[in-house]
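Figure 2 data, in text form.
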Amino acid sequence: MVYEGHANAGGTRQLSDAWYRLPIFYFSSPLRIFGPEEAVPYPSASEQLDYELELAAVIGREGSNVAEADAFAYIAGFTIFNDWSCRDLQRDEMEARLGPAKGKDSATSLGPWVVTTDELAPYIRDGRLHVRCTLKVNGVQWMDNNGGLMYHTWGAMIERASRDSRIAPGDVLGGGTVTGGSIGEAMRNGFPARYLEPGDVVEIEVEGLGVLRNTLAPKVNPDPNYRFKAPR
């Protein structure tokens, strides 16, 4: 994650030296992508579903060992990224110092547009995308902040992702949760937030990128005895 205010839980958590040195990222499932206005099934094994408001760079050119200074030449454009997160499953997994896995792979929402870097030029400064980001649940605002608060630049993230590896057209790199863009942060900031429920409408609006709106559908085949749930 590259937004310091989110990563340190509003100043309540001390971050490691590695967090400041490295643009940290993880790999998510590309097989559960939902677009704007699509219904997103509520994960059957979770009772604490959260959103994460992120910006994402869509790669338009193949490369390896890309230098930070050249990275924007590899970005086709930017879009909105909602990294749905099952906090109860995620906490359980990460106690083992691995993951997240099932806490993150049930759904990712992207859209509504991929906006090219030339169109976003007025918002790009110092390698960051300075755009206003707001989030509403059922029409009630739970977040308002700016995407330019990233600690690491987009170029630094692409440089590290491509180091001794490969990026290719169509790859999507999420920039980490914009400060304030999760339910825990909304609660700490005094918004009337709670974990999400089936039927909730989550609406993310980002300056220059549009509105990404999804409704949570009921759980599919919920199983109260699911064997990987935390012990009672």
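Caption note: The domain at 4-217 is CATH 3.90.850.10 (Fumarylacetoacetate hydrolase; domain 2).
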